[in-house]
Amino acid sequence: MVITFRDERRPQKPAVTAIGVILGPGAQRLMSSVNDLRIQYYSWSCVNNCVQPEFDWRRILNEKYEVTTAPKVYSLMTPDHDGQELSVKIKSPIPLTVALLPSHLADQVYDKSVSLTDALSQTGCKERGVQSMNFNCTFNVANGTQTLFIAPDIAFSGHRKANIEVHTVKCVDHCDLLPPPPNP
User: Facing residues of 135 across strands?
Assistant: First the structure.
């Protein structure tokens, strides 16, 4: 809270005479003479929709895994709100394709009933040729449960390890105020 005093005789400068009352008698001598003071209180308080959902970053995955020719699939979560952020940090010795896919689509790619190219055309959250990168995506609640899909871009031999770390923004308080998910 801030209180500003203005002297009508000198409107361009805040008056400090009333501060002596607050600071005590010793400070009064430093000030000019005391005047009548009218205080008008204004409150800028929230009056409508004051309680909102609160969000915080949470780590949902941190793994060092051996890269194989088979895709690595992480069934992550069902988002709790549209636009929910996801942050992916990956480091790999070989180029990888990394995509966030609706789980049913990731399952079809894994089972080879849908090509990876077709699946990637249905998502905006994808990166190809990733070796060291941080990138962010947002969830769409209508897509349901999401899967992080990682596959090598090249043929390779030997043992290679990749690091993956994933964070998301999750509702941590007043989550009952989030809009309900759409009906399928």
Answer: 88
3-state secondary structure of 28: helix
Q: Class assignment of domain 54-177?
A: mainly beta
**Domain range summary for the chain, segments of one domain joined by +:** 1-44, 54-177
Q: Which two tokens stand for residue 172?
A: 């941590």
Residue 109, SS3 per DSSP? helix
Please name every residue paired with 121 in a beta bridge, in sequence order, or none if there are none: none
pLDDT of residue 161: 93
Pair 154, 93: CB distance under 8 Å = no
Query: Which residues contact residue 65 at a Cβ distance below 8 angstroms, ignoring those fewer than 6 apart?
Result: 72, 161, 162, 164
Contact in structure between 156 and 94 (CB atoms under 8 Å):
yes
DSSP-H helix ranges across 18-89: 19-23, 25-28
Q: Which stretches in the chain have pLDDT values below 50?
A: 17-18, 28
Whether this model's pTM surpasses 0.90: no
